[in-house]
Amino acid sequence: MKKIAVTGGSGKLGSQLVHALQQQGYEVTSLDNRMSDQLHCRKIQVDLNDFGQVASALHGADAIVHLAAIPAPLFHPYPYIFANNVLGSYHILEAASVLGISKVVMGSSESSYGFAWAPEPFSPDYLPLDEAHPQKPQECYGLSKVVGETTAEMFWRRTGMQVISLRFSMITRPEEYPSFARRDPKSFKTILWSYIDIRDAVRACIASLEAENCGAVSLNITADDTLSHWETKELLAEFYPEVTELRSVFADRTAVVSNAKAKSVLNWKPQYSWADHLSSE
Question: Taking all residues of the chain, what is their mean pLDDT, rounded to a whole number?
Answer without folding.
Answer: 94
